[in-house]
């Protein structure tokens, strides 16, 4: 029983550390992809001052360049619309960002986020994410300590007899 508590607690500590590292922005040192996004648009408009918004969309610098080029192409096509017909509307590429800090009034100018797994979701560096990471971190540390205590007690009992 003590060994399983020790291993389970260790796994929770690792999970909590990953979430805390992602939320603080130290993830770049661990080789995770970190990007700063601009043109932020947060969908939840009912936030109070200083809260976190779960669903925001932004554009990386590469996406901003591609979107500008696509808008320029459509503008040029609009000039030829009387000859060739109406051009199609551009498909702008935006990235979904989770847990972005929001002041409750306006969307942030930029959001720095981490992508934990290649091709996965982007998580903003925020105090809320750090707080969520502290839950499994502390729970895992307590569980591992309890498992270590139980193992130590079992060894001392076996050595005395």
Brief overview, please?
The chain is α+β, with helices and mostly antiparallel strands. It has helices at residues 2-24, 61-79, 81-84, 127-160, and strands at 33-42, 52-53, 56-59, 95-98, 100-101, 110-115, 122-124.
Describe this structure in words.
- The protein is α+β, with helices and mostly antiparallel strands.
- It is elongated, with a radius of gyration of 24 Å.
- α1 (2-24) runs antiparallel to α4.
- It has helices at residues 2-24, 61-79, 81-84, 127-160; strands at residues 33-42, 52-53, 56-59, 95-98, 100-101, 110-115, 122-124.
- It contains four helices and seven strands.
- Helix content is 50%, strand content 19%.
- The strands form two sheets. A five-stranded mixed beta barrel has the order 1-3-4-7-6. Strands 2-5 form a two-stranded antiparallel sheet.
- A hairpin with a 6-residue loop joins β6 (110-115) and β7.
Topology record:
Layout lengths: L1 H23 L8 E10 L9 E2 L2 E4 L1 H19 L1 H4 L10 E4 L1 E2 L8 E6 L6 E3 L2 H34 L1
Parallel strand pairs: 4-7
Antiparallel strand pairs: 1-3, 1-6, 2-5, 3-4, 6-7
Helix pairs in contact: 1-4
């Amino acid at each position: 029983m003590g060994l399983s508590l020790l291993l389970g607690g260790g796994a929770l500590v690792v999970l909590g550390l990953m979430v805390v590292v992602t939320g603080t922005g130290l993830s770049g040192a661990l080789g995770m992809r970190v990007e700063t996004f601009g043109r932020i648009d947060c969908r939840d408009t009912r936030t109070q001052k200083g809260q976190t918004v779960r669903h925001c969309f932004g554009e990386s610098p590469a996406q901003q360049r591609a979107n500008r080029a696509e808008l320029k192409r459509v503008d040029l096509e609009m000039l030829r619309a009387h000859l060739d017909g109406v051009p199609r509307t551009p498909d702008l590429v935006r990235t979904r960002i989770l847990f972005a800090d929001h002041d409750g009034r306006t969307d942030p100018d930029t959001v720095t986020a981490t992508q934990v797994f290649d091709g996965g979701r982007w998580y903003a560096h925020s105090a809320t994410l750090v707080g969520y990471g502290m839950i499994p971190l502390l729970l895992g540390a307590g569980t591992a300590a309890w498992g270590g205590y139980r193992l130590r007690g079992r060894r001392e009992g076996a050595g005395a007899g």
